[in-house]
Amino acid sequence: MQDDSHTLKAWLLAAPLEDVTARARARREANGPARMTYSPKVFIPLTRLCMDVCHYCTFATTPSRLEAPYLTPEEVLDIARAGAAAGCREALFTLGDAPERRYAAARDWLAERGFARTVDYVRHCAELVLKETGLLPHVNAGVLEEEDYRMLRPVAASVGLMLESTSERLLEKGMCHHGSPDKVPALRLASLAAAGRARVPMTSGVLIGIGETAEERIDALLALRDLHREHGHLQEVIVQNFCPKPGTKMARAPEVSEADFLRVVAAARILLPDEVSVQAPPNLNDERLVELIDAGIDDWGGISPVTLDHVNPEAPWPEVERLRAICATKGLPLVERLTVYPRFVMSEDRSWLDPAIRPAVLRHADAEGLARDSVWSPGLADQHAPGSVRAPLGQFHAGPVAASLHRILDRAASGVTLSEYEIVALFATRGAAAQAVIAAADALRAEVSGDTVTYVVNRNINYTNICTHTCSFCAFSKTSSKAGFRDKPYNLDLSEVAGRAREAVERGATEVCLQGGIHPSYTGETYLSILREVKAACPDLHVHAFSPLEVSQGARTLGMPVRDYLAMLKDAGLGSLPGTAAEILCDDIREQICPGKLTTQEWLDVVGTAHAVGLPTTSTVMFGHLEGIGHWARHLLALRNLQLETGGITEFVPLPLVHMEAPFYRRGQCRKGPTWREAVMMHAVARLALNGAINSIQCSWVKLGMDGAAAVLAAGANDLGGVLMDESISRAAGAAHGQGVTIAELRTAAESVGRTLKQRTTLYGEVALEAV
Questions:
Q1: Mean pLDDT over residues 608-623, rounded?
Q2: CA of residue 714 relative to chain centroid, distance
Q3: Is 609 within 8 Å of 554 (Cβ atoms)?
Q4: Crossing angle for the helix pair 676-689 and 420-427, to the nearest 10 degrees
Q5: Helix, strand, or coil here: 140?
Q6: At 473, is the pLDDT very low, low, confident or very high (cuts 50, 70, 90)?
Q7: Is the pLDDT score of 379 beyond 90?
Q8: Is the dihedral of CA 406, 410, 412, 413 positive or negative?
Q9: Planar angle of CA 132, 134, 139, nearest 5 degrees
Q10: What are phi and psi of 536, to 5 degrees?
């Protein structure tokens, strides 16, 4: 069947409802991860005055029925603060269309406070809410001009305008929009187009059952489709059913039948582009929630834990946990989103979010552009891991897990190389599907690594924090003239480095890890001198030292190939290299967070060359900032492919961004590190994606906290890293989990997941006598 508009419209109107909903459902299921979204929001009814007199509306009223024409800024902030305290992310400004054009009371109230129009006051209040509470404003201010949308962009993450219908008949006498000049379809379509030109992420929708015909319903959806095709700005389309309300002219009007309503819902999913979500209000359809899911919706809209639906006050919100359970039975985990949808948050096209509001959006966002799952962030001392050692992601509602996911898990367990698409699918799982990924990762860990948790007794020595690079995530490095937030610039002399190495040996260390900033005066000979001094002081100590970036600098300053320089380091006693400075092995992200450092290929070349000369390395990822889950997948594949070629990687270490003092976070340019779910999933997916290549997955207690590290041990990790003795880099970034850990604390973490602790060497060999 051809999908031209005329043929498709005829089919949508005439085909059996079961066929239409099945097609819509298939369209949704083929489009991205299995999930249902909603926005936890607080409703702010800024004014109930409106220039229109829609015959079905109980929200709009007259000045004589109100104590004041508008809420005051103080009242607005009180509502917003209550929403923020209850975990809301969005502040929905609900109001009538330009009431100052109809009521002198509105004009006078605004004028007394220095505002000419309602939209100017809306902007003022939205800015207050954004500044004082961090909630993301979404503004429903009626028909606006392009300049109005541009004015709102710095303070509103998204804007909404319901199209409702394209039927001119509804403006005729006796029909619902008679006497409502802003309900002229052409006017509303023009306003929606203006929003597109202003680059504003937009919500729109249709209202079903207000007198329109079945054909007109499809026409309205087609009009929205065409608008989006031109501007790309529609993030969601609401299909809302009319509910008659006492006290209105349409109080006795019949409601649309369930079958007709579901047909329009399904038609919306079929007609609209995949990236436009289809939403239906759950509070107006409590008796048909499952049917709406089966008709193809993927979003429930805004649900408020603190305020009622001021437009439909007679319809209470469903309990979120009940909604979550219903969605889970359909294999669709319920996930919080922001008022601005993920594709605008994560888009490389930065024009969709004004620079003034982007920092607030990023503070709420996760790696998919959805809402963060908890207040937890890496390195925070007062935030314990939300999960437990037995259930790392906490409680969840059981539900079906797609056969396609089980196929990916089976392929991973067999050791084959997954595709980027498959790895992304693993990272994107939520709910029961995510638990299936974690269970598979932990089972694979038991098969590959057994039931011991390993660790190394080591000491970190960061010989300088002076660095020529200005990586946007790094709070450790300093220039010679710039003091840091916690530390002053320093450059240890050789005797101090050697002395710290001797102290480490006296305290039972088998390894010392040496790394520092890229000091402008350091040459390849400097690194050799450091290495020789340590080996002279401690001949039997394993030296794990020099990032690929330091190796590259050392070779360059001596004018020799990297291979020759690595051979010199090995001959001088170097035992292995830390696989740091990898960050994200995707150059589009590297150009933003660490310009001037090694490119992806240069990093891989240095590490591969180290393996070729007999120097093993670790491998890392630094995640939770600007990258997305696609970047994670590409990073893992780059490491896997290198390991399959060289075999020199001993372990993979996920390093969650500690954001608090990171320069780009302080400038409002990145997220707050990974969420707890993302931290757990990075370890679990790494276990699966790297199976058959890298056998050890290490977790960082410095970043996760000891309770977090223990929980991740139940999600595929097998190694707790080192006791460290001194840890400077995470501490400089704001981490508060300590600069060292005792063996007893590591043992407690291992025993909490029913496993035993075992000391290892740097290269995963046996130690002659375990430390105590």
A1: 98
A2: 23
A3: no
A4: 150
A5: strand
A6: confident
A7: no
A8: positive
A9: 95
A10: -65, -40
Of residues 183 and 737, the one with the higher pLDDT is 183
Taking the C-alpha atoms of residue 528 and residue 598, their distance in angstroms, rounded to an integer, is 21
CA atoms within 13 A on the CB side of 678: 33
- Cβ–Cβ under 8 Å, residues 408 and 732: no
Of the chain, the end-to-end C-alpha distance in Å amounts to 74
CB atoms within 10 A of CB 380: 19
CA–CA separation, 469 and 518 (whole Å) = 7
Please state, in angstroms and as integers, the Cα–Cα distance from residue 68 to each residue in 63, 111, 392, following that order. Answer: 7, 14, 50
Q: How far apart are CA 30 and CA 424, in angstroms?
A: 15
**DSSP structural state of residue 737:** S
CA angle 647, 649, 652 (to 5 degrees): 140
> Residue 394 region, left (φ>0) first, then alpha (ψ -120 to 50), else beta?
left
Instruction: Give the integer Cα–Cα distance in Å for 127 and 665.
Output: 21
What tokens does 505 get?
């040996």
Distance CA 242, CA 211 (A): 10
Across the range 394-415, mean pLDDT stands at: 93
Contact 632, 622 (CB under 8 A): no
pLDDT in tens, 118-128: 999 999 999 99
Cα gap 384→701, rounded to integer Å? 12
Looking up tokens 């303070």, which residue turns up? Answer: 155
Supply the mean pLDDT for the chain.
93
| 8 Å CB contact between 99 and 51 | yes
In this structure, what are the phi and psi dihedrals at residue 458, rounded to the nearest 5 degrees?
A: -145, 175
Beta bridge mates, 303: 40
A 10 A CB-CB count for 67 gives: 5
CB 157 within 8 A of CB 364: no
Q: What's the whole-number mean pLDDT along residues 714-729?
A: 82
Give whole-number Cα distances, 721 to 127, 534, 538, 709, in Å.
46, 22, 22, 10
8 A C-beta contact, residue 404 and residue 650 = no
Burial environment of residue 195 by CB neighbours within 10 A (0 to 12, 13 to 18, 19 or more): buried
Residue with tokens 């696609």: 630
d(CA 274, CA 630): 19
Q: Is the pLDDT of residue 468 over 90?
A: no
Residue 622's DSSP bridge partners are 655
The answer to whether 422 and 728 have CB atoms below 8 angstroms apart is no
DSSP structure class, residue 254: P
Residue with tokens 């500690």: 658
The position carrying tokens 């006598």 is 769
Whole-number CA gyration radius for the chain: 30
Report the distance separating Cα 606 and Cα 610, nearest Å.
Answer: 6
- Between the alpha carbon of residue 74 and those of residues 80, 127, 185, 304, the distances in Å are 10, 13, 36, 20
In 3D, which of 521, 580, 515 has the Cα closest to residue 543? 515
Whether the predicted pLDDT of 734 surpasses 60: no
Q: In this structure, what are the phi and psi dihedrals at residue 277, rounded to the nearest 5 degrees?
A: -75, 150
Helix axes 403-413, 420-427, angle to 10 degrees: 110
Where does residue 31 rank: exposed (0-12), middle (13-18), buried (19+ CB within 10 A)?
A: middle
Pure H helices in 251-376: 258-271, 289-294, 320-329, 342-345, 358-364
- The encoded tokens of residue 669 equal 């340019």
Angstrom distance (rounded) from CA 373 to CA 542: 41
d(CA 74, CA 78): 6
* Residue 67 neighbours by CB under 8 Å, 6+ apart: none
> Measured between alpha carbons, how far is 501 from 755 in angstroms, rounded to an integer?
31
Residue 685, both tokens: 């997916």
517 residue type, one letter = G
With contact defined as beta carbons under 8 Å apart, do 743 and 771 qualify?
A: yes
